Amino acid sequence: MAADIERGKTLYSQLCFNCHGPHLDGGIGPALKDQYWHHGSSPEAILRLINKGVPGSEMIAFEAVFPEADRLALRDYILSEQEGLREVVRSVYSRDYFKGKRFTPALFDSVEPESQTPLPENLYYFERSKEGVMRGTSKLYIKEAGDYEFAIRIIGRTSIFLDGEEVHYSDEKTDKSTHINKKFSLKLGIYDLEILHEEKPSHSYRFHGVLKSDSGKQFALNGRSLQGNIPKIIKARPGQALVVRKWIADLPPRALLCLLPNQVIVVYNPGDGYVIGAWHSAEINQTPSLPDRSAKPSEIKGTPIPDAGPNAALPGINRFLRYQVEGDTVHLVSLADGEEKTVIISPKGAQSFKLTVQ
After folding, report:
1. Helix 5-15 vs helix 68-80: angle between axes, to the nearest 10 degrees?
2. Is there a smaller number of Cβ atoms within 10 Å at the N or the C end of the chain?
3. Hey, how many other C-beta atoms are within 10 angstroms of the C-beta on 220?
């Protein structure tokens, strides 16, 4: 029996949104619809995480809490929100076997790979000085119906098969008139995608390509390896506040991020003595650029606290002097009207903070 996606959406809104965000875009827990899936993006891997949880994290095992039908519904709702490449696997083969032969999935099926690696980034990348022919297999999730085509940099030779049909063929050693690059219509759904590629050995592969639609939507096929790294999350330890400075979009570069042990983050501008804003159920994602291969700044993930800022905590400030952490509170010392004043930020309940001036 097919799982009920609407039931899964309801369960997500009741159980998961606090950690993974109301739109699966992440919060305390990772995003559930970007391309980076540390524990795997297949239906089996997602269900396994729902069933067993993640030891050492806040993700509990739900198999002892909810019936199988509910867990399947939750999994299928998460899958229904995916877009782009998932379940990416890179296989590498000896080059000699493929000399003079046209790339097809059947040809690759006839020989064993030298290595086979699931790529949690769901983008293709290669180790430096790697010798061999690559077969990339993945699932392509489409949420916007339309006409699509591949844009491939012509380096070496490349064949792409979509649901078993060759939609792209190029070889820098052959006449371009022999190349294939079909435009095709895709409906909402999941497709099998294979990329078969070979190029002249060098210090690193240069394969590059995107899938693009007439509406302007694009999906990258390649990217950088995270080499075992996962996005780095910063939050205060129990009973101990923390102050950090990170580049956060739309915040002053000198802003102090005051992380309280109740998972509240208060942003204080030492230049003018204002509290700029605050979030509860919050943390700092220091590496949001990893999944998107971008230069994104660090970002605050959490729920904004209403009326938290901008609010003058210390009017008449002349010069910021220092900060210090005392247990679960942050002390911010400045000169205001020629006198030393201290703004104290401390936790208040589970989702707020208290501001006092001494």
Report:
1. 90
2. N
3. 17
For residue 214, the model assigns a pLDDT of 96
**Between 55 and 213, the higher pLDDT residue:** 213
Count the alpha carbons within 13 Å of 291 in the hemisphere toward its beta carbon.
21
β-bridge partners, 189:
142
Q: For residue 234, give both structure tokens.
A: 């910063």
Residue 86 falls in which region: left (phi positive, over 0), alpha (psi -120 to 50) or beta = beta
Q: Which two tokens stand for residue 162?
A: 């979509």
The whole-angstrom distance between residue 75's C-alpha and the CA centroid of its chain comes to 18
- Residues 221, 123 contacting (CB under 8 angstroms): yes
**CATH no. for 5-80:** 1.10.760.10
Residues of each domain in the chain carrying CATH 2.60.120.260: 84-220
Between residues 18 and 41, the one the model is more confident about: 41
Token code pair at residue 137 = 């297999």
Using CA atoms, how far apart are residues 251 and 215, in angstroms rounded to an integer?
A: 33
Summarised one tens digit per residue, pLDDT across range 91-112 is 999 999 999 999 999 999 999 9
Q: What gap in Å lies between CA 290 and CA 267, rounded to an integer? A: 24
CA distances for 121 relative to 137, 140, 203, angstroms:
13, 14, 22
Look at residue 78 in the predicted model and tell me its pLDDT. Answer: 96
Q: Which CATH superfamily is domain 84-220 in?
A: Galactose-binding domain-like (2.60.120.260)
**How many Å apart are CA 37 and CA 46, to the nearest integer?**
9
- What pLDDT digit, counting tens, does each position of 210-220 carry? 999 999 999 99
Indicate the burial class of 300 (C-beta count within 10 angstroms; 0-12, 13-18, 19 or more).
Answer: buried
In order of 236, 239, 245, the CA distances from 325 in angstroms are 11, 11, 14
Reported as a single tens digit per residue, the pLDDT across 267-321 is 999 888 889 999 999 999 888 777 655 667 888 999 999 988 787 788 777 788 8
Give CA–CA dist 336/103, Å, rounded.
Answer: 73
Helix (H, G, I), strand (E, B) or coil at 279: strand
Rounded Cα gap, residues 332 and 320, in angstroms: 8
